[in-house]
Design brief:
heterotrimer; A alpha+beta (157); B alpha+beta (791); C alpha+beta (261); A: 157 residues; alpha+beta; 5 helices; C: 261 residues; five-stranded antiparallel β-sheet; globular
């Protein structure tokens, strides 16, 4: 067992974990942050994506011990109290989620992308190539992210 | 079989309706905040052991030894349940065909597909449970696997004949004969299965929480396997489910398996399926081989159809199979006016994962052969495919239209929808573009598909797997009913509970819209509980989420319950306002008589706090349950005719593709789909369903196929090999709508979530065949496969 | 899908790391970005006794200019590798996805030596090399010696990749691939490098390692295809893959020529 000291969603956690514990399981089952979802555990589906020191990463491909000293943000950090973030709001308005299982990972990846500039639709689609969604057909998700980016949300295709 | 038309569509006309408006969903906020409550998020009972499942490594093998003693020595292992114990403790799952090989939730002596459960190990956590799986010693004696359907054991073989097929074929000017394979694929929701099972020895009962999409008939099937009277199996679904598209109907198998583990070990057991397990052992669509013959008159009239169908359901015939084979039985001629149809339906077993519900369910398997055959016929007749379709579509003046196999098409204007699709896709211009492209030696193709999308399945259609004489031995099965309950609290709060077990479709929002219209409130005033509990919810054997039945019977039940409650509120208010009940109007959370009004909150208070003051004959409280049963769904008749579904939408699709001659890569340049799904309850959600159904159609058309090697090992066992399309892989989609209300559903709505999954593989196949100028194409049309076709 | 138990080590220096590798050898696995290794751990297809996490090793994430080329520390993330070499820029869009590039490293991809991975082919065609360290010292291994076969390199069990050297290629490079979906491992890929009449072409995915090919300038693609014996697989036949070699080599050479101009 290894002790780790990690900041998750602005809150510091000191926990003792087995080295093999995946970050996704640590977040969900040790900290109870069940908003991060597990869809494949081999890095393809993207549902478990969180921010590690600001960068979108797969939490199923990280060990909890690797976050020692790091800062992690999950979907639970996005809203500001009663207010949804503009990205969450856009997902709602564009009907960019149905079952909502893939949504947290996409929100976190999009948060990283949007923090780097104003992606166009092609860049947004490229981002989404790393996320599986089986409900929406993706175009409403592209619309929602494009809306926040201020990019052209028309031509929804 | 005369059609019953409903005339009781009771819609308010004096105020703006909520139904029909594109309002965003009430479900969204919790999901966006990470506050969704999915199965693996819940701990409904404390101290559950964590299960991992030992699965067969081989597709077909005798299990000569299974020794769990080393696993049991592990200090953190709580116990093991073996396949032999499963067989001893339970009964085979009941199924609709007699005499098939018994199917249990785990195998004891012979494993029949790679991934079949052999034992369950329960430990303190999942990590340890997986460690312990490696300590269970299994010896196999390999047996020859059967992988090709033509070599599979035939468990059902029936031939159906309607009209005079031989006569039709003898008059034909053109007969098209083709063979088609619809590949095995799977909808692969993002959330896998999850179960928490808690056996009570005191009660002799099992409570199971599972992201099941029933109860449907499968609650009874599971109870039968467990040997429990129905009330002793309590199934509860979580508030949220991470997609299903049919596949989670099969969670029932694991409810039984984990229930038995809980029973044996004397502790609650939880299991969350991982992706490798899901792809290997959950369920898949039925793979189908079809031989079609179609007879045409010189002018293109489709005179007759002959199908020879072989459905590969995998290692076991598992309930509700062979439903895939019969789901479309009333629609064997699709959208066409053909009167002479023969179908030989064989169901065979192979050493692959058993099949189950999967979006489209029988539709993609029917329409690929039918629509490809029509395209081939058009080519041979020298007709444009759109023109051939037009000459054969059921006419707008023919509804309700009885198909030769007993289907009853409720309403529609197929030709108008086709015209809309041709217009929206700029079909004529695209054909000109195709001429130019061909002149430049480019491979440019256009494909059509016109399909009827049945929804709200008749619970009786599956009995077609039996002969009329066999059916006569048991009680008739028919219909499709759903229940809903609405409660108004003492403070006037409104809570709705439905048994439709949504997995992302937005049922709660639509229910709120329906109730808002009936009770004169805002949708935001209505709380909707979609978590099903078989001990407390209003449900029937048909309840659940399949056959696109929500907008028809689910919303219908809510509508009826709300009408009952509205009638009661009017009666109470009428007394208070001194008018007749029919003079009372419910709007703005008040009951109005002219200018005078009384608030809903006061009416609720009266019903709860002051029953003495209620009008004579009015019960205290404000809670109503109603069941809506779709009409015209009788049991199959003696001639094997059945109205297999209550409502029938129509879809006309146009796909435009270009194929890269060098690489075989298919680019879908444009895709147009026009739907007539009756009255649209929430257009925003409608388009969401259309886009999702489209993506699930693109999957098997271009990317997805479950593959095994010659030994039956799964080659597509991870998301690296099973290729679900991603955002850049999906072409642009143009959507159009017509609204011809259904006379057979309470709100005039028809199902629409599966139609594009039915139509897209056919339309894409037609477009690629058109581009390549060939007749035979095989799905999915991956670059290597298309390149091979070009050689 | 949970990893089997392992001992976890988190060295902070290269010396400490190579000491651990010397001690554990084949029983140890180095964890860099983990985008290939952790799936294997989760599936229990890799089960090292010791996992050596090098993410905290000091000074392994530098990019230094090397006379027009770059020296890229083993821990430089793929997302940070833009600009280290024109060939890296060409191939990065094909490497995994946004989130995996944030974590995956250039060095890790090269050390993993998946025959279907883009960065090893890029390094080979760029004429780069790998710097490996062990308790015995450092050595530089040219890329055309480094890749042996699928998942196998010239690295000794006690060696750590510390740096990837990308020589100056100039702009005359191109990378072409065909994958079933964006970000998938390629069915086939080809890279080309032209400068001053010199042409270097390599292909990947279709054979067991990234491979340089002799090109007949009269019939470049066809001559390339004649030299490969692809093994067909789940998704594609050998004939198709050989054909793709021809198509993609032609496309890559043409694009490299355009980029050089």
């Amino acid at each position: 067992m290894t002790s780790i000291d990690v900041e998750v969603n602005g809150r510091r956690h000191r926990e003792t974990v087995e080295p093999r514990l995946l970050l996704s399981d640590f977040l969900r089952h040790t900290l109870g942050l069940t908003g991060t979802h597990v869809g494949c555990e081999h890095g393809v589906c993207g549902a478990c994506t969180v921010l590690l020191d600001g960068a979108a990463v797969r939490s199923c491909l990280l060990l909890a011990v690797q976050t020692d000293g790091a800062r992690v943000q999950t979907v639970e950090s996005l809203a500001r109290g009663e207010e949804l973030s503009p990205l969450q709001e856009a997902f709602h308005e564009c009907h960019a989620l149905q079952c909502g299982f893939c949504t947290p990972g996409i929100l976190m990846a999009a948060t990283d992308l949007l923090g780097r500039g104003r992606p166009d639709r092609a860049e947004i689609e490229d981002l989404l190539s790393g996320h599986l969604c089986r409900c929406t057909g993706y175009s409403p998700i592209v619309d929602a992210i494009a809306r926040v980016a201020g990019a052209d949300a028309g031509g929804a295709g | 079989m005369a059609a019953v038309k409903l005339t009781s569509v009771n819609v308010a006309t004096h105020q703006e309706m909520w139904v029909g408006r594109a309002i965003p969903r009430f479900e969204d906020e919790a999901l966006l905040r990470g506050e969704g409550r999915f199965m693996d998020d819940l701990a409904p009972v404390p101290h559950a052991g964590h299960a991992a499942i030992l699965r067969s490594q081989l597709a077909h093998a005798r299990v000569t030894r299974l020794d769990a003693s080393r696993a049991l020595e592990h200090p953190d292992v709580l116990g093991v349940l073996t396949g032999a114990e499963v067989v001893a403790m339970s009964r085979p799952f009941p199924v609709g065909v007699e005499g098939v090989r018994p199917y249990y939730s785990a195998a004891a002596e012979v494993a029949r597909y790679a991934g079949e459960p052999l034992a369950v190990v329960v430990a303190r956590d999942r990590y340890v449970a997986e460690d312990a799986l490696e300590l269970v010693e299994v010896d196999y004696e390999p047996l020859e696997p059967v992988l090709e359907p033509q070599h599979g054991e035939v468990v059902s073989d029936r031939t159906f004949s309607y009209g005079d097929p031989d006569g039709a074929f003898s008059q034909a000017a053109l007969i098209v004969r083709e063979r088609f394979t619809f590949p095995r694929w799977t909808c692969a929701p993002l959330e896998c299965y999850g179960v928490v099972a808690d056996w009570s020895h005191a009660g002799g009962s099992l409570t199971a929480w599972a992201n099941f999409q029933g109860p449907f008939t499968l609650h009874s099937v599971a109870a039968g396997a467990l040997g429990l009277p129905g009330a002793k199996l309590r199934l509860i679904t979580p508030p949220d489910s991470g997609g299903s598209f049919g596949i989670k109907a099969t969670v029932y198998v694991y409810v039984v398996l984990l229930g038995l583990a809980s029973r044996k070990l004397g502790l609650p057991v939880r299991w969350t399926e991982d992706r490798l397990e899901h792809l290997a052992g959950s369920a898949t669509a039925t793979a189908r081989e079809t031989e079609v013959e179609a007879a045409f008159a010189p002018d293109g009239e489709l005179l007759g159809l002959r199908y020879d169908i072989v459905d590969d359901v995998g290692a076991y015939l598992r309930a509700p199979e062979p439903a895939t084979t019969y789901r479309m039985h009333g629609s064997l001629g699709g959208a066409y006016r053909v009167r002479n149809v023969v179908s030989r339906n064989r169901v065979v077993l192979t050493n692959r994962c058993p099949s189950g519900l999967n979006r489209g369910f029988g539709g993609p398997q029917l329409y690929l052969p039918l629509e490809r055959t029509m395209a081939i016929a058009a080519k041979r007749l020298g007709l444009d495919p759109a023109e051939l379709a037009r000459r054969n579509l059921v006419g707008a003046d023919e509804f309700p239209y009885r198909t030769p196999s007993g289907g009853l098409y409720d309403s529609g204007d197929y030709e108008a929808a086709l015209d809309e699709a041709l217009e929206l896709s700029r079909y004529a211009e695209r054909r000109e573009e195709q001429q130019r492209a061909r002149a430049e030696d480019r491979l440019f193709g256009i494909g059509l598909a016109v399909v009827v999308e049945p929804s709200i399945s008749n619970m009786g259609y599956i009995t077609l797997a039996q002969t009329a004489e066999e059916r006569a031995q048991s009680l008739p099965k028919s219909g499709n009913a759903e229940g809903a309950t609405i409660l108004i609290t003492p403070l006037g709060g409104i809570t709705v509970r439905v048994g439709t077990t949504p997995q992302g479709q937005g049922h709660a929002t639509v229910c709120a819209q329906v109730v808002a219209d009936a009770l004169g409130v805002r949708p935001a005033d209505v709380e909707v509980l979609t978590s099903l509990d078989t001990s407390t919810s209003a449900w029937t054997v048909a309840s659940g989420n399949y056959s696109s039945r929500f907008s028809g019977v689910g919303a219908g039940a809510v509508h009826l319950a709300a009408q009952k409650l509205a009638a009661k509120l009017r009666t109470i208010a009428a007394q208070e306002l001194g008018v007749e009940p029919h003079e009372v109007e419910l709007r703005e959370s008040k009951a109005w008589a002219g200018e005078e009004a009384i608030s809903l909150r006061r009416l609720a208070g009266l019903a709860h706090w002051n029953p003495d003051a209620l009008p004579p004959g009015i019960e205290a409280g404000l809670m109503e349950t109603a069941f809506y049963s779709a009409p015209n769904l009788g049991p199959p008749d003696e001639e094997d005719r059945v109205a297999s579904s209550a409502a029938h939408g129509f879809i006309a699709d146009v796909a435009v593709v270009e194929v890269d001659r060098e690489t075989g890569a298919v680019t879908v340049l444009d895709y147009t789909t026009v739907h007539d799904a009756g009255r649209l309850l929430n257009p925003l959600l409608v388009d969401g369903q259309v886009r999702g159904g489209f993506a699930h159609g693109i999957g098997p058309a271009l990317f997805e196929r479950i593959e095994h090697d010659e030994d039956g090992n799964l080659l597509t066992g991870s998301f690296m090999d099973y290729l679900c399309p991603t955002a850049p892989d999906l072409p642009p989609l143009r959507i159009g709508h017509l609204e011809t209300p259904s006379p057979f559903t309470a709100l005039g709505a028809k199902g629409l979530g599966e139609g594009n999954t039915m139509s897209v593989p056919a339309a894409i196949a037609n477009a690629v065949a058109d581009a390549l100028g060939i007749d035979h194409v095989e799905l999915p049309l991956t670059p290597p496969r298309v390149w091979d076709l070009l050689q | 899908m949970k990893p089997a138990p392992f001992r976890y080590e988190r060295p902070e220096t290269v010396d400490e790391t190579v000491g651990l590798l010397a001690e554990h050898g084949d029983d140890a696995k180095v964890l860099a970005g983990g985008q290939s290794l952790v799936p294997l751990l989760n599936m229990r297809m890799a089960r090292p006794a010791v996992l050596i996490d090098i993410n905290h090793v000091f000074n392994l994430d530098n990019i230094t200019d090397d006379g027009g080329g770059s020296r890229v520390g083993a821990l430089v993330r793929q997302s940070a590798a833009h600009g280290v070499s024109p060939l890296v820029d060409c191939c990065l869009p094909y490497v995994g996805h946004f989130a995996t590039r944030n974590r995956g490293t250039v060095g890790g991809s090269i050390a993993h030596a998946d025959a279907s991975a883009e960065l090893p082919l890029a390094l080979l065609v760029a004429g780069g090399s790998v710097v490996a360290a062990s308790t015995r010292g450092r050595r530089e291994i040219p890329a055309d010696e480094f890749f042996v076969t699928h998942f196998t390199t010239r690295l000794e069990p006690d060696e750590l990749v510390v740096e990837i050297r990308w020589p100056d290629t100039g702009p005359g490079v191109a990378f072409e691939e065909l994958a079933q979906r964006r970000g998938d491992y390629a069915l086939c890929m080809a890279a080309a490098f032209v400068r001053d009449g010199e042409l270097r072409v390599g292909i990947g995915s279709v054979v067991d390692r990234p491979t340089l090919l002799e090109i007949d300038p009269e019939r470049p693609g066809a001559s390339a295809a004649e030299q490969v014996e692809p093994y067909g697989g789940l998704h594609a036949s050998a004939d198709y893959l050989r054909h793709l070699v021809e198509v993609l080599v032609d496309r890559a050479i043409a694009a490299a020529g355009r980029n050089a101009a």
